[in-house]
Amino acid sequence: MTSDGKPTDTKVVPSVSIATARTGASSKVNALGMRPMQERAYAKRGEQYLLIKSPPASGKSRALMFIALDKLQNQGLKQAIIVVPEKSIGSSFADEELTKHGFWADWKVQPQWNLCNAPGDDEVKVDKSKVRAVGRFLEGEDKVLVCTHATFRFAVEEYGIAAFNDRLIAVDEFHHVSSNPDNVLGSQLTQLIAAGKTHLVAMTGSYFRGDAAAVLAPHDENRFETVTYTYYEQLNGYTYLKSLEIGYFFYTGRYLDAITKVLDPALKTIVHIPNVNSRESLQDKYKEVEEVMEALGTWKGVDAATGFHLIERADGSLLKVADLVDDSDATKRAKVLNSLKDPAQKHNRDHVDIIIALGMAKEGFDWIWCEHALTIGYRSSLTEIVQIIGRATRDAPGKERSRFTNLIAEPAAGEAEVVAAVNDTLKAIAASLLMEQVLAPRFEFTPKNQGKLDGFEYEGGYNEGGTNLGVNAATGQVHVEIGGLAMPDTQEAKRICKEDLNEVITAFVQDKTALEQGLFNDHTLPEELTQVQMGKIVRDRYPELSESDQEAIRQHAVAALNITQQAKQALAVAEEKGEYSNTSLIDGVRKFINVRDLDIDLIDRINPFDAAYSVLAKAMDEKVLRQVQASISAKRVNISKEDARELAKRALEFKTEKGRLPDINSADAWEKRMAEGVAALAKYRADEKAKEASVNG
Fold first, then answer.
1. Are strands 13-19 and 243-251 parallel, antiparallel or unpaired?
2. Which of 124, 195, 313, 399 lies at 20 to 30 Å from 431 by C-alpha?
3. Rounded to an integer, what is the distance from CA 529 to the centroid of its chain?
4. Is the pTM for the entire model greater than 0.90?
5. How far is the C-alpha of 393 from the C-alpha of 493, rounded, in Å?
6. What is the DSSP string of 601-631?
7. Distances (CA, A) of 600 to 199, 372, 485
8. Dist CA 397 CA 179 (whole Å)
9. Is the pLDDT of residue 208 over 80?
């Protein structure tokens, strides 16, 4: 680390790099004008409750149009109400001439019923006119209304659940909903589902929340038919984009002194400056924007037509910079926003070069030319990170590479509270780990020798009794055989293993203690993370499932996380040797599993954070890293009663297998830890009995 406030390195350290096959499949349309995801969703159009999990730019808005038109025309529903989180996203549901591409009807929204275009605030205390408009729509004959989540919430409160009977409610960016009773929209949707008279279509590109709360309660979620289109399928099927890099970069001092190291003016970039409450903020957002522009070149004025700033670079070229931070003049800001949304400029790569934003240009913001999303300061919400990365993953002619960079303040080595300051780093790593799972292919896990699966290609053919890796090019799924793998029994557990492993992994990587101990404490045993901590998360999340189903889900989640991490590690080692360049994650999976006989015990003995630590060690100053490790290792983590119970359960499994209980003096660290768990549980029970005896005595 240097002492002059400059960054610790001159390059971004990518924590994950995804290469794509560029098959072009994502963009191909069928006879009805539907892309693959839309066709998949339309096939389920008869379902009363439909959940579409699909990444940004995959066409969720148009998929909804196809489904809604069928429900209105052929399924007897009276009206469709499209609900979006903010007004700017309402434009995604504007009129579309679908018949031009082969569909049997066009999508039309009468101007007075797109309430996202209506003037006024959506808060009911400011403007009740939009709520009254919903009431008039419900009483009328028109078919489609678009409004914000806020307007819909107030309308339900005003008119009641029954007013929406026999109607389709489509909720965009569904991750805004939560099963938490304090989440009004979530509670209203629960009531609508309980009434059973409404059709629901939920759409999201990130079906998890930054606060780790469930989006829906399990009994409600079970009612939904799910359509999943993965990030892997989307990116792999692009025509132009062939790689995506995601990484974090540390700096010391002011971020404005470091930004030139990561902000390349030659790339179409969205810069998200830090929130005013964050450590990275300099407490003057206007000044920060000025300094970012100064770092780019010499200010030459404002374009009268667009409101974009004109910045001359050292080579004489002119950059057009859109400032979405300056909210001091509503008219000027509206001009900039309208210029960015101008449909005539959507396919003009040279319309704008750099966008500087704070709370905007995230969810639903469509700029296909964006090559670099640069975010300063950590974001506490993993959902927000996923949404920001989505700004850079659009496919566009000539755009072969895109990247996301998180620029984070490094804790100073001399800080007394260095561990407290490392929280931001932990959150950045958690986001990175999550994105690796989101971007990875979907795994189809089976026990050894269960046989080849239909639709999967096996390199060299399927080898009975050997190590096999199958790839389904159409779906982006990877078949991996694992010895001793527990399989789910019930339909719900099978659905979770197929659809929801990323949600389980999200909860795991958001656990601060697990992340701290797994990254920085050399004494942490992998099994404490993979078996105890992951087991606890699965039990808390799915308490209604049997122990055998919970264990199957735990094993599948650990396998998905660790195989992705080991694949990334294998690629990094190969790249250091000069063996590979820009290769796909599937090659890394193949490299990892082909050299060993894979079984669940081996997978459980891998620390899920090892690969992340190797990246962190390259990115962070060594002195700070050692100080953090010393501080974390010094924290004695007592065995909680719940952990003791889990360790005791594992000890019984050990006894069944070995014919004896674990030995507390064993040289094997995991056997010793299980024995410590048995002793701790015995002490908890003895203390409880003593307490009962004193009360009764």
1. antiparallel
2. 399
3. 21
4. no
5. 32
6. HHHHTS-TTHHHHHHHHHHS-HHHHHHHHHH
7. 41, 38, 6
8. 41
9. no
Choose among 546, 551, 519: nearest CA to 532.
Answer: 551
Amino acid at 363: E
Residue type, 108: K
pLDDT tens digits, one per residue of 568-609: 888 878 777 777 655 677 888 888 887 667 899 999 999 999
Task: State the Cα–Cα distance between residues 592 and 546, nearest whole angstrom.
Answer: 32
Between CA 132 and CA 139, with CA 136 as vertex, the angle to 5 degrees is 140
* Mean pLDDT across the chain: 86
Residues 613, 572: Cα–Cα separation, whole Å: 13
Of 544, 567, 188, 241, give the one whose Cα is nearest residue 391. 241
Contact 585, 567 (CB under 8 A): yes
Q: What is the pLDDT of residue 420?
A: 59
H or E element: which one contains 158?
helix 149-159
Nearest to 485 by CA among 515, 443, 514, 533: 443
Q: 530, 603 in Cβ contact below 8 A?
A: yes
H-helix or E-strand containing 266? none
Q: How far is CA 165 from each of CA 18, 136, 155, 199, 530, rounded to the nearest angstrom?
A: 45, 15, 14, 9, 46
* Torsion sign (Cα): 406, 407, 409, 410: positive
Structure token digits, residue 223: 């009612």
Rounded to whole angstroms, how far apart are CA atoms 556 and 566?
Answer: 15
pLDDT digits (tens, 9 = 90+) for 225-236: 988 888 888 888
Burial 373-406 (b: 16+ CB within 10 A, else e): bbbbbbbbbbbbbbbbbbbbbbbbeebebbbbbb
The tokens describing 46, both together, are 């008869």
Q: From residue 626, how far is each of 276, 430, 523, 622 by CA, in Å?
A: 30, 20, 15, 6
- How far apart CA 272 and CA 381 sit, in angstroms, is 14
